[in-house]
UniProtKB/TrEMBL annotation, chain B:
Gene3D superfamilies: Phosphotransferase system, mannose-type IIA component. InterPro entries: DhaM, PTS_EIIA_man-typ, PTS_EIIA_man-typ_sf. One of its GO terms (molecular function) is phosphoenolpyruvate-glycerone phosphotransferase activity. PANTHER family: PEP-DEPENDENT DIHYDROXYACETONE KINASE, PHOSPHORYL DONOR SUBUNIT DHAM (PTHR38594). It holds the Pfam family EIIA-man. SUPFAM superfamilies: PTS system fructose IIA component-like. Keywords: Transferase. This is PTS fructose transporter subunit IIA. Residues 6-136 form the PTS EIIA type-4 domain. It comes from the Bacteria.
Length: 201, 136
């Protein structure tokens, strides 16, 4: 597969994510009000709006630089746990991509895998803990096959958090009462992968 | 004691008033007078509840005297934000360290130790040790 994913595509990915978060902010906050502190939608909206603004202003020239700037912006603007988590995901993925002006889907899958690993270390979560990892890990695996497979895997992973009991974050204080609700972090992670599939299609 | 070579303390809470009040408490219990520098980084820049990397970095720079900065945090995004800044970024001064300690008791122990001229390892050890003090 040729190295066809360039900085422009990565910018469109971040713009598509900003649009998806804007569209779904109410739903994310609603999911978060069931088991969290009802700020996931507004936090991510603030973060990805700032990302879109930063990318417009600085116009980084490589895929790695786009994601590194996006990650740094999220850490500095979100104000909730999703900021350092998504910030670390994108910043580590961006660093893995290095200075290449274009990358292949396989290279992105490998880099994203490293990014997800950094998120897991940061938050200390395991698969099945009802977190964003439950959407991201299957998505990274499926990204080896196709963008659409990654989108489907992320959506399925997010949906599969419904019967799980939360073991990380504020939702874990609820114990068994967290069962029966879809995890907001896994839901927004599926939006991120969906935005990638949308622009890469 | 000269202000050179003293460890600085940063207190990160979701709430600006909690961070400021714990800083004041620590200063008071550290004996008042001249203490090591301690800065509060609480809440978001607009005054809401949350964590601000900008406030954290500004606080760390403000207390950095070249001997390291000990950062104490409350929970959730405060922990994750400091860890993310340390793991991936270059925004914090060299020698900044996240200290795993109870927020209030650890802040007092850290400031007392730093004010007595302890180095970063000693400040961290004192703050961590605060977990061992049982109340019942």
């Amino acid at each position: 597969m040729p190295d066809t994913l360039d900085a422009e595509l990565f910018r469109r990915w971040m713009d598509a994510m900003a649009a998806a978060v804007e569209r779904e902010a109410e739903r994310l906050t609603e999911l978060d009000s069931a088991i969290g502190d009802a700020d996931h939608g507004s936090n991510l909206r603030r973060g990805f709006t700032a990302v879109a603004g930063a990318l417009e202003k600085e116009t980084p020239e490589t895929p790695g630089a786009v994601l590194t700037l996006a990650g740094r912006t999220l850490i500095s603007t979100v104000g909730g746990a999703s900021g350092p988590l998504y910030g670390t995901l994108l910043r580590r993925t961006g660093k893995e991509l290095g200075d290449a002006t274009a990358v292949s889907r396989e290279e992105l899958a490998r880099a994203l895998g490293a990014g997800v690993g950094a998120v897991a270390r940061l938050g200390g979560a395991q698969p099945g803990d009802k977190t964003m990892l439950d959407a991201l890990l299957p998505a990274v695996d499926a990204l080896g096959s196709s963008f659409d497979a990654a989108r489907v895997a992320a959506d399925a992973g997010a949906l599969a958090t419904v019967p799980l009991q939360a073991r990380k974050g504020r939702a874990s204080y609820l114990g068994e009462r967290s069962i029966g609700h879809q995890d907001p972090g896994a839901t927004s992670a599926a939006l991120l992968i969906g935005a990638l599939a949308e622009v890469a299609a | 004691m000269s202000a050179e070579g003293v460890v600085g303390i940063v207190l990160v809470s979701h709430s600006a008033s909690v961070a400021a009040a714990v800083a004041e408490l620590a200063r008071g219990l550290a004996g008042g007078g001249s203490t090591a520098p301690v800065a509060a980084a609480g809440g978001t820049p607009d005054g809401g509840l949350g964590t601000s990397s900008e406030l954290i970095c500004a606080a760390a720079r403000a207390v950095d005297r070249g001997a390291g900065v000990a950062v104490l945090v409350d929970l959730g995004s405060a922990v994750l934000t400091v860890k993310a800044l340390l793991a991936e970024g270059d925004e914090l001064p060299d020698g900044t360290r996240l200290v795993d300690a109870p927020f209030v008791e650890g802040a007092v122990a850290a400031l007392v130790t730093a004010s007595a001229g302890g180095d970063l390892d000693a400040v961290e050890a004192a703050a961590v040790e605060a977990y061992d003090y049982r109340k019942t």
